[in-house]
Amino acid sequence: MSPRPTVTEPASSIPEAAGGIVALTLATFAAITTEMLPVGLLPQIGDAFDVSDGAVGLLVTVYAFMVAALALPLTLGTRRLPRKGLLLTTLAAYTVSNGVVAVAPAFAVVAGARALGGIAHALFFSLSIGYAARLVRPHLTGRAMALVTAGASAGFVLGVPLSTTLGTALGWRLAFAVLAGVCLVTTALVAAYLPPVASENEHTHPVAGRRPQLAAAVTTNAVVYLGQYVVYTYIAVLLLHTGVAEDAVGAVLLGVGALGLLGLWFSAARLDVAPRQSAVLVLAVLTASLVALAVAFPSRGGVLAATAVWGASFGAVASIFQTAAVRTRGATPDVAGALVNATANVGIGGGAALGALVLHVSGVGALPWLGAGLVAAGLVIVLAARRTFAA
Fold first, then answer.
1. What is residue 197's three-state secondary structure?
2. For position 304, what pLDDT does the model report?
3. Residue 362 lies in a domain
4. Other C-beta atoms within 10 Å of 215: how many?
5. At what angle do helices 42-49 and 18-40 cross, to 10 degrees?
6. Is the model's pLDDT at 206 over the cut of 60?
7. Phi and psi at residue 136, to the nearest 5°
8. 3 assigned to some structural domain
9. For 302-324, how does the pLDDT look when each residue is reduced to its tens digit (9 = 90+)?
10. Residue 342 belongs to what domain range?
């Protein structure tokens, strides 16, 4: 029997855990860019295969529903396997998925390759959330989650916009090929710099009586993501309807993602101090920005201004719900991560599918109204679930 790998103990400070946090941040960047790249290239992919914008939007749905269905069973089925090896396997699968999309001869092949990416994603975020929780002591969980989530923000800030700009200028296939290369390099860096961790430590054991709090956290997560992705999946279509030029969509997405760093900074500063107040404030601003977007549409200036606030507020959302779910101790960090991952992707996939329906029936102008209503429902749950978001 081979010896167990050497594992690290939870660090007592963020600088002590910096190497592992940076490695996870890089991996998260590759993962979120892979997941969301079709959003920026939706019109071009549709034109290439002669399918509608709504049909291409369903690529996000297929991907997300694979995650929603498989996150928990894959996490439970692999719970005894080394965490680092599993994480590297998911990154290798992202590489293959993007490479196949880049050369796909038919839309069905694109959908199949995206399904492979969805399987990898089902395990990746469950692992990364649990991994981040094990790198630091419990009182630093919020900051560690926010820093790792910086990889997701970087995906929105740099990955998706730059890939969109590249795809618009030189072809969407090249964008996916470049992303496959980025995933390959990221895999090598994570292999070199991410320390192994134990599957459990004294802070990971679940408390059965806290499962209702965990349920409240992941339910709210699903509702908020549903509201977000009803709109965000079709942001390229929305921007084009306001008169934004096709070759400028990537630049707008770059600005939206950059503003998301403000929300990330806020969550890193406040989640370990005032988690409930932070959640309420972020969701209230997110709701208001979507209402403003709906009112302003199709005025280009008003839409861009509302989108800026929308992007900034959503930057804080992921770390808020990840931290809340892990801190409830209603399950181990991996299982809590799997539930956050699954419910987020129920929201992402459901938002893409619901948005496609609304786009067909009522037009793009109806999307922000629906998104605002759903995020407001999430805010109501946060206000009611006091114990879930307590310090």
1. strand
2. 93
3. yes
4. 17
5. 50
6. no
7. -130, 165
8. no
9. 999 999 999 889 888 888 888 88
10. 18-384
> Residue 136 forms beta bridges with which residues?
11
Residue at 7 is within a domain: no
Phi, psi for 34 (deg, rounded to 5): -60, -45
Orientation angle between helical segments 42-49 and 172-193, nearest 10 degrees: 120
Look at the chain and report how many structural domains it folds into.
1
CATH code at 94?
Answer: 1.20.1250.20
| Average pLDDT for the chain | 83
Could you report the per-residue pLDDT of 44-99, keeping only the tens digit for each? 888 888 888 777 877 777 777 787 888 889 888 887 888 888 899 999 999 999 99
Distance CA 217, CA 26 (A): 26
CA distance 342 to 307: 26
pLDDT-wise least confident of 167-181, 204-218, 227-241, 315-329: 204-218
Question: How far, in Å, CA of 219 to CA of 225, rounded?
Answer: 10
What separation, in Å, do the N-terminal and C-terminal C-alpha atoms of the chain show? Answer: 44
Residues 377-381: contacts with CB under 8 Å, at least 24 apart? 377/223, 377/227, 378/220, 378/223, 378/224, 378/227, 378/283, 379/280, 379/283, 379/284, 379/287, 381/216, 381/219, 381/220, 381/223
Closest CA to 234 of 370, 337, 139, 121: 370
Listing DSSP states for 55-116 in one string gives HHHHHHHHHHHHHHHHHHHHHHHTTTS-HHHHHHHHHHHHHHHHHHHHH-SSHHHHHHHHHH
Q: For residues 208 and 225, what is the distance between their CA atoms, to the nearest angstrom? A: 26
pLDDT tier, 38 (very low <50, low <70, confident <90, very high otherwise): confident
Residue 100 resides in a domain: yes
| DSSP structural state of residue 13 | S
What is the per-residue DSSP string for 260-302? Answer: HHHHHHHHHHHTTT-HHHHHHHHHHHHHHHHHHHHHHTT-HHH
